[in-house]
Design goal:
The chain is an alpha+beta fold. The chain has one domain (about 5-130). The protein contains 3 helices and 7 strands, in the order αβββββαββα. It has helices at about 10-20, 100-110, 145-150; strands at about 25-35, 40-50, 55-65, 80-85, 90-95, 110-115, 120-125. The strands form 2 sheets. It has a 4-stranded antiparallel beta sheet, covered by helices on one side. A 3-stranded antiparallel beta sheet has the order 1-2-3, with no helix packed on it. The longest helix is centred in the middle third of the chain and has 10 residues, at about 100-110. The chain is globular, with a radius of gyration of 17 Å.
């Protein structure tokens, strides 16, 4: 079985913590395996955040990278992308203001822009937005709330005691 299919997905509490953390570190990438003309790369985010000022690194997700893009110098700069996994959808949050170049590369990789601002959101193929969707300054497509992509587990209330 492919390694990327064995990795657990992030739950809402993890995604929310990552959104609140004060990102100060770098991103790094590891090639974990190849499949045909693609490489599955694991993104690690080195962070500092939380109440106890903890430092560490966390795997943020996987991305399928065409082999011919690996050797390009600007590929290293793409490590400023934060990857979150939710179910079978891959969400990429841009954390830099230099969005033009990144948006173009991500579209080439098969991702779709779903937010018009510099904190752009992308969703993998098969999402509700057709490939190649573009948004004007008015933002014709509304970004779905994070809770819809990372649903909380509903707790079953205990039975009433007699």
């Amino acid at each position: 079985m492919m390694l990327h299919k064995q990795l657990p997905t992030f739950e809402l509490r993890v995604a929310s913590w990552l959104m609140r953390a004060r990102f100060i570190g770098d991103y790094s990438v590891q090639r974990i395996e190849g499949e045909g003309m693609f490489v599955y790369a694991q993104f690690l985010h080195h962070w500092e955040g939380g109440g106890r000022r903890v430092r560490g690194a966390v795997c943020l997700g996987l991305i399928r990278i065409p082999l011919h893009l690996q050797s390009q110098g600007r590929f290293k700069r793409l490590l400023q992308i934060c990857c979150l996994l939710g179910g079978s959808a891959v969400v990429l949050r841009i954390v830099t203001t230099e969005t033009g170049e990144y948006f173009d590369l991500l579209r080439r990789w098969g991702f779709v822009q779903v937010s018009p601002d510099e904190w752009g959101y992308f969703k993998a193929d098969g999402g509700p937005w057709p490939l190649g969707t573009t948004l004007g300054p008015g933002g014709e497509i509304e970004y779905p709330p994070l809770k819809d992509w990372y649903p909380r587990r509903k707790r079953t209330p205990p039975p009433p005691s007699d």
